[in-house]
Amino acid sequence: MTAMPATPALPEPGPRLSCALTREITCIRSLAWRTDLPAAIDWPRLAAALEAAGLVRRPPVGAMQRFATTRGDELSLIPTTGRVQFRVHYTVPEHERRFAAERLFRLLYHALRP
Amino acid sequence: MPIEDLRELLAEQSLTFLAGIPYVYHCHHYNLFHDQTIDDALGETEGARVRTTAAHTAFRELLGAVFAATGATTPAERISLAAEVFAWMGHGRISLDVSSTGGRARAPSLHYGFAWREKYGARVKRDEPSDAVAAGFAAATAELAFDLAADAITATETRCLATRDPECEFALTPGKGHLSRPPIDEATVRRYVIPAIHGVDEDRVAAIAAGLLEFMRAVQGDERGLVAAFNVFVTAHLPGYYNETVYEAVHHVERTAPAGVAAVEALMREAGQVCVFNTFGNVLLSPEWEGLVGPLSGVPTDMMAFCTAIARGLGFGHWLIHEYEPRKRLVIQATSNYEAPFYRARYGVAKKPRSYFVQGASLAMMLLSETVPWTDRPQLTNAYYIDLFRSKPRYRVEQTRCTTRGDHLSEYVVEAL
Asked: B396, B272, B259, B308: which is closest to B14 by C-alpha?
C-alpha cells in the first residue's frame, strides 16, 4: 500500500538534500507523482527558481503553492510539510506520463541547486 | 453574466445552487459507479433509458433557470450558453448542430466517457456508450433553444470514447413530448430543511467546510470542460439526476420484483460507500487538503470531523456528528441533504427511510475513520476497497429518522457488529 519508487534517487543537489520520485497516492493511472523535501529549505528561493525556469505561478490553495507548465502539467509545493506533487496533464498518454513526471522532477532538482 | 455569478450558497445548510437549482460535487469514481448501479438494478437497456431521461429532466430544469436568469432568448445564445455551463460544470466540451427537429452533437472529451476509458479502458472492453448525462443535456438544450415541450427531442449516443471511438457523437431526433413537472429549486429545497444544529466538533467541522466551499467556488472546467482536482475528475452535478435514477430504479424493483428490494437498496447504499471511499479518501490524501487543512493525523475523531466537513464542502447538506464512540457507535444527523427534497417533491411522504446515499456514506465514514492507516499513505485501489468493506471490524447502518418519511431530520446510526 505504500508508494513504489519509480526512479533512482538523483544525486544530492546540496549538502543535505536527497529526493526521489515516487508514485503519488492516486487512483488515476500514473498521473500524479511526488517527492518530499525538508521543510527547512528556502521555499521562496525555490519558487522563484521555478518561475525563472518557465513555470507559471497559479493561485495558491491554502499553504499549497502551485506552478504550471505551458502544457498544463502542475507542480505543487507544500512548504509546511515538504510535500511536492507533480501532476501530469491528463491528456498525456499513459505510457508517456512517467517521463513527463521525470521531466518535472528534473526541473525541480535543477531549481533546488544553489 | 458570468456563470460563476449564478451560484448561490445556503451557507448554514451547506447547500449550493446554480441559478436556483441545486448542485453538488461528485468525482468520476462515484459517477461511474452510480451509473453502473442503475444498470445493475434495471439492466443495460432500461438503465440507459432511465439515466438519459433523468439527465434530460435535470438539465431542462437547470438550463431553463439559467436562460431565465441571464435573459438568453435566441437559439444561438441558448445553445452557446448551455455548452458553456456544461463545460463549467466539468462535464466536457460539446458542440451542438441542431434545429427544432433535431440534429447532432459531438464532443471530443466528456466526463463519463473520458473517465471510464481512463479508469477501465486498459482492461475492460465496453460495448455500450457511457454518456447518458450528455445525451440528456443535448436533448434538453435543443428543446429549450427552440422553446419546445419537454421530451420533444430525444438524444442517443452513437459513438463514444468509452467504446474506443475517437470522440463522442449524439443523434437528436423528434420525441413524443410531454408536460414538464415543476423544477426542484431552492424554494422547494428550503421546504424540506430545518434550522441547522451543532454537532460534535462543530467549530472545526464548520471551519474546514467553509474553506472547502471557498476552494470549490474556484473549481471549474478547463479548456476541455473537465476538472482534474484532488487526484480525481470532479463534476458539479445535479442531484436531480442522481435522485431520479435511484428512486426510479428502486420503485421499479418494488413494483416488479419485491423480493429484490433489499438487494437494490444495498446497491444504492454501496454507491454512498464508494463516494466516501474514493471522493472523500482522495480529497483527504490530496495536496490540496494538506495545503488547506494540514497533514493527516489518522486519529479517528479527526478523520470523522474531516469526513463530515468534506460532505458539507461538496454541498451534500448540513451533516453533523451527533454521537461518536470509536469502534462502537456513530450517529450522523442531517438537517438537510440532497435526497429528501427531491423525494418529497416528486413522490410525497415515504413509508420507510429513503436516504440511501447518506446511509452508505455514514457506514463508510466509520470505516475510513477507524480502519484506514492514513499516515501510511494508503493507495485507494479497488482491491483495498473490497478488503476494507469485507474484513473486520464490520459495521451495520440503520437510518432511524428520515425527512423523506416526514421525520423532523434524518439520522443514521452505525454500530459495530
From this structure: B308
